[in-house]
Amino acid sequence: MSSKKKNILNIGFLVLLLVLTFWLVFRDQDLGPIVEILGKVPIHFIFIGLVLVVCYVCGESVIIKYLLHAVKIKAPLINCIRYSFVGFFFSCITPSATGGQPAQIFYMQRQKIAIPTASIILMLVTIEYKLVLVFIGLALALFGQPLVQTLPPEAQFYLYLGLGLNVFCVVFMSFLVFLPNTASYLITKGFLLLQRLHIMRDKNNRMQRLQNSMETYRKASVFLKANKLVIFNTTMITFVQRILLFAVTYVVYRSFGLNEQSLLTMILLQAAISVSVDMLPLPGGMGISERLFLQIFAPLFGSTALTLSGMLLSRGISYYMLVILSGIITIITHITVKPAPNDNKS
């Protein structure tokens, strides 16, 4: 199946999931009060929320530019911003956000950034993203138990499930990066064992692709050891980047004239949702994100109508509007970023 057909199917699945989610949420609700509440929201709060999510995406652009600079590659910030929006769009329309990095690598390669280099840079971005999410999740689980215990049992289950999956992911990626030779040996032997047991076949050059991936991790290990300060700085940027996105819910909360909850509380609760859904095989955590929002924030917003309005506005700003914006930028990027002359696709 061509990538174009896959993208069409992914977008179709996203729309279907969107329709199903909103039908389940609003099928028994009176929309009149919700429309009235949303109609009274001051426009400047929506603008602030949009600025936060754009800064969130552009934060990744700064990280990409910083990492490229560390390997002596000059890339205009506007190009890095394009890569980030492209990555966000394809992450949103593919299960488990699997389409983001391949799309970014595709356009980076078009602008004469070698695929191995692009792969290492984006791998480091992913590791830092996961590491920051795990740090926030562990801090919440270890030191925020009074807040965690206020969550419904289902929300607590998803929080610990998501945290466990993210911890496993970070540990596994760290193993690949910091012990690349050992990891390569064990994974290759494991793959050969699965072949002998007829559980897996070497289809579509799987072994070669596996070896290429392990080589990328070896190069990432070398980069990490040689650029510790760069990694520390970009991890701190990632931390700020995540906080900006989580703060959108607080902006929405204040837009309704509510002020009883602190910024920290709202950020931590939104972080709990992000940790819960990050590893689930759903585009943007759609469906479960809305469900957890309604469960977790209902006591804080007060009424059902306010909670539903808050969910619509928060998800609308931080996800749905950003999908539309990133889709537009992706289309522009596809039209304007042409393959480099004499491109050998290396």
Notable characteristics:
346 residues; mainly alpha; 15 helices; 79% helix
Question: What can you tell me about this protein's structure?
Answer:
Helix content is 79%, strand content 0%. With 346 residues, it is mainly alpha-helical. The protein starts with a helix and ends in a 10-residue tail after the last helix.
Stretches where pLDDT is under 50 for at least 5 consecutive residues are none
DSSP strand (E) fraction?
under 5%
Average pLDDT level: 83
Rg from Cα: 21 Å
The major β-sheet equals: none
The protein's oligomeric status is: single chain
Q: What is the global morphology?
A: globular
Q: How many strand units?
A: 0
Helix fraction bin: over 70%
Structural class: mainly alpha
Task: Produce a short descriptive summary.
This protein is mainly alpha-helical. The protein contains 15 helices and no strands.
Write the layout of secondary structure elements.
Blueprint: H1 3-26, H2 31-39, H3 43-70, H4 77-93, H5 100-110, H6 115-143, H7 145-148, H8 153-178, H9 180-196, H10 206-226, H11 228-246, H12 248-255, H13 263-277, H14 288-301, H15 304-336
